[in-house]
Fold:
Amino acid sequence: MHHFQYKGDELYAEDVAIKEIVAKVGSPVYIYSQATLARHFKAMDEAFASVPHTICYSVKANSNLAVLKNFINLGGGVDIVSGGELYRALAAGVDPKKVVYSGVGKRDDEIEYAIESGILLFNIESEQELDRINEVAGRLGKKAGIAIRVNPDVDPETHPYITTGLKKAKFGINIERALEQYARAQKMANIEILGIDCHIGSQLTKVSPFVDAIKKLKRLVEGLRGMGINLKYLDLGGGLGIQYNDEEPPLPSAYGASILEETKELGLHLLFEPGRNLVGNAGILVGKCLFTKKGEEKNFVIVDAGMNDLARPALYGSFHGVKPVMKDQDGVLVADVVGPICESGDFLVKDREIPNFKQGDLIAFMSAGAYGFTMSSNYNSRPRVAEVMVSGDKFEVIRERETMADLVKGEKLPSFL
Structure:
């Protein structure tokens, strides 16, 4: 459930007409519903209310400061994968002790920044990373909290590009070798073993892969306790899917019930890293129809938003629902919705029955709150779009649209030209 609904024939974000936002801010534009963000966070948080837990929002899904602040105000932490994401989270006011740092490629300066900031823990993704964090922490005269990201070799049954828990994935340490790495960490002077971490993929629509992973982790936890390593945290990552089209992902309450049943004997503080589940359906991208074109074999609706604004369809063939901002079209047609980028892969919709859009129509691309703006680029020297947040009958710009001057910021001509 989200707060983008029609009132009569006009699409609204909460109590604000979309066309009113576009009239003031222009298009393309990302629009987020504050009420939807809050409801999704609370649903996940309440699913685990009976046990110690922290919801560490996955910043990569949508890193706008206003989005982060929403979740921080509700008691959330963050899951980060770069020094830049840590900077954003701290700027938004996160408690450093609610920050977990994932990702396979942490640089020395990022590790140092995180240790000096006092984050809760690093999720270790390789043997060499463990050595490096121990070395950097020693240089700083501090101890670094860690969890090892265990790769349980569980098939999450999702898109191969967002599958992360199989043996062939670049993420984590294979479960068979995890005990050995914990034994190494146990001997390191500047490492504090705090937990165990697992993240098997994104956009999962079944609970069973999560449960399968936990069963494997439980055996590992028992082995660690036998070695005298008593963990405090179990980080189960994120990955719970959302409805883009006809998917039927479990509700947070059902997901929570299964996880609680499977982990009840462990007595560990649970950490979760939801991203898409919190923000995906809380945002839309609105573009304008520039032209329509009838080809020999296809119909095209050409809009002012392209693959540089919303990369998911081009990258994954992903589905985003399409709605007219004003329902005044004459029938439907089968068409591709394409952008202005000079790439044949620049499409937002392919071979789908859509309203018979005409020049000037505003078009909403639904479920665009996750991996939308955060994956956007300046390809074709296109300024990145504005972001807006709606709360009730009010809206504010939470990121200004880039200008032409922004496109060359930081560039300079060398002296020899």
Remarks:
- The domain at 4-32+280-407 is CATH 2.40.37.10 (Lyase, Ornithine Decarboxylase; Chain A, domain 1).
- Residues 55 and 75 are 8 Å apart (CA to CA).
- DSSP finds twelve helices and 21 strands in the chain.
- The radius of gyration is 23 Å.
